[in-house]
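Repro:
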Amino acid sequence: MRLWRFLHAVVLLFCNLFFSLPLAAAPESDSLSTSLSTFEGDTIPHRRKLTPLRRTVRGFDRLDTTFIEPQHYIFTVMLQATHNYDIYTLRSAGHDAQSMTFAPDMRLRLGPYVGWKWIFLGYTFELGNVSLHNLKQQFDLSIYSSQVGVDLFYRRTGNDYKLRNARLGAANTSTLEGQPFSGIKAGITGFNAYYIFNHGRFSYPAAFSQSTQQKVSCGSWMAGLGYTRNSLELDHERLQQLIDSRMGAASVPLDSGLMFRKVEYHDFSLSAGYAYNWVFRKNWLFAASLQAALAYKKSAGDVVGDNRDGFDFQNVNLDGIGRFGLVYNNMRWYAGASVIVHTNNYHKSRFRTNNTFGSLNMYVGFNFRLKKGYR
């Protein structure tokens, strides 16, 4: 039901964007000054003057063609293989703090993507493990222009986590490492929006959506905002049973700070960073982008044995976003790989958690339906 609600919101967003755009695409131009004059209706007779809103919308894709080659095609199709990773570290407070790190095995996800102008939509599914009991889901919608971008995401993990590392005071926990643990589930829903300051010469979409082509190396400062809802379910009773069975007489009881059944994290963030596109050979591009996010956190949950404050806290922490990409793009065909990493930190005097999630993407795509003015 939550997935359908999210899809419904996405459809509404798409409709609002579609109907706010002009019905006819603006003519292609060889220079920035010409396109500005054309948009404002000063050089072409009988052209209806544009409203400030329409000028703003059309201005999203103004760029310096000395540095950036505009997209020559209207549509694109792409096949993408993805390795997703999610790492959760839970840590209690105090001198004898306990910590648990959970992560599933990395598995291959595969799926098709379709693009039209600013919209890039796709769905991936996990290969080799498609049972209804353990189905992972990922839904992504990206809206790009030269000035701004918006990424919406919906991810639901399965129940195939493993206990990668455990620290229970001075006890030897080597027998716990690598043990399967199906008592943890996680989900992430949210969006990130960002603004590119040097948007006329630097193309972020050239690195991560292949909708333009960077011709000359260039960088830009970035700023953005975002929201993420991160849900985590933990069967602490089953976790205690695992500890008891593997450690035997040396078993240690869980700290109350790690005894919860479900917790939700709401993350409101403001980010800033720098991105650089390095064109080291014709049609080849290496991109690197780093952003630090000042995030306001609000969480709620159920902690066993503590009804006073539990997981109810408001906090401000520093998060991070990293993107790296290698792309070959000759405008007709493109292929490449990208790595995207998010890290979120939640700190409280009696409890801490860190969530690192991201993806390694490998893709190949094809553009078609040539725009007017291109050959």
